[in-house]
Amino acid sequence: MPRPYRITGPPSARPPYPMPMPARTTPPRPAGPLATRGSRRFAFAFLAYVALTVATFWVVYRYTKEISHRVGHIEDPWLQFSLYFVIYVVLTSAVLLAVGRLPVRLGTEWRLRAAFLVGATLSFAFAFYQAKFGTGLSATYFSVGILGTFATVLAATSRRFGIVEVIARPSREVAAEVERAHAGLALADGPWDHAKRLLELVLAVALVVVSLPISVPLAIAVWLQDPGPLLVAKVAVMRGGRSFHQLKLRSMEKDAERATGPVPAAPADARVTPLGGLLRRTHIDELPQMINIARGEMSLVGPRPERTVFVHRHLHEVPGYRLRHAVRPGLAGMAQVYGDYYSTPAQKLRYDLVYIRRRSLRLDAQLFATAVLMAFFGVRPRRRRRGPKTEAAEGLRWRRAYAALRGEAAPPAPARAPEPAAAGPASARGAGPARRAAQPEIDERPTAKRA
Question: pTM for the whole thing?
Answer without folding.
Answer: 0.73
